[in-house]
Hints:
Blueprint lengths: L23 H8 L100 E4 L6 E4 L18 H20 L3 H26 L5 H18 L1 H19 L7 H26 L4 H26 L3 E3 L3 E5 H21 L6 H29 L14 H5 L2 H16 L2
Antiparallel strand pairs: 1-2, 3-4
Helix pairs in contact: 2-3, 3-4, 3-6, 4-5, 4-6, 5-6, 6-7, 6-11, 7-8, 7-9, 7-11, 8-9, 9-11
Amino acid sequence: MPPVPADPGPPPGAPAHGPADPAAGPAREAGRLSGPLFRDEQPGTVQPGIAQPGAARPGTVQPGAARPGTVPPGMAQPGAGQPGAAQPGVTETVVLRAISDDAAPGLGTPPHPGAPVHPAPPPSHPAAGQPHFVPSSHPGQETPVAAQPDPQPQPRKQRGGRNLQAAIGVGVGLGAVIVASLFVVKALFLVVVMAAVAVGVWELTSRLAERKQIKAPLVPLVVGGIAMVATGYWSGIQWAAASLALTGLAVMVWRMAEPPEDYLRDITAGVFTAFYVPFLATFVAMMLAADDGPQRIVLFLIVTICSDTGAYAVGYKFGKTKLAPTISPGKTREGLAGGIALSMLAGALLMQLIIDDGSWWQGLILGGCAAVTATLGDLGESMIKRDLGIKDMGTLLPGHGGIMDRLDSLLPTAPVVWLLLAAFVGS
Length: 427
């Protein structure tokens, strides 16, 4: 704020006074107040009777300045017993230093003009459940903010996003159906295989149409698939292969009823579906046709299930090195080793105990090969689902997905087990 002259001078028309009292200068300087809230003016900066630009007129008070003759609380009054007080009749105007935000309470006050301001340390984090404050636009004031409740921990999801109870229940139910159909009426298990083939073909062609707009003919694929399974059971591999060829021709002819656009793409998908689902399942029917067919089916199912179970258990506990991270991130090399070991152990025991003329070392070979093909089949199915952008092929089996999600490792393993059993103990 600009300084105010100590003596405004005589009013207009008043008689001129003589020379100023020589003692007035020292008294005026002794009566000037100083401190952290006042500006200490240098002597000689204001000439008596000359108003500086922006200076207050006599009798007025600038904002933030003290009125003439008053002193802020806590300051001694001039002439109250202090040496060098101002002489009577002399008016002193004290200019207060403007109070700004950096001199607000709690933010530190400089000990003298020009000294740096040290901000107060930031408040510590409030305790849990206590309100905290945020800075306000008014200095020295803070706005309380209601304390936010602590976030509740989210429930932990099950591994793989599956419903474990539903998966176990469905697995037990499927096992009961398989055992009952195998050991009560052998041909009844053949009906189970045909039904699984028909549903699997429907799931695969439906997903192809939904995600890729590929229209593989469903009717010739279902009919041809059932024919493959039946001819393989009653007549052997030659008739099953002939049924596959006829199914491919039927797909080509059936697709001719549609416009020619994407004809090659649709029949290619149809031939692939005929080979992937019903033809590979035909080897299960051919295993069933042997005299000890139910025992061979049990061996085939158990070594495949042990491969999946051993890989899951060992991979979950010790898995560190990814097997195929771009295809199936959950599979590890340690899990693959565990699956192979458990499948070989199961193959050695079952080959020795339930297969006529079987030997334990044959079971080791069969179990190891079955574990490898089961893993490759699972990876192949994962590639198809990633290409289609889906997680499961269907929703028919709660906790498992669709039929194709359960056949992914069984289908490629069936021809390997059938071939090894035919080589070891005959067909």
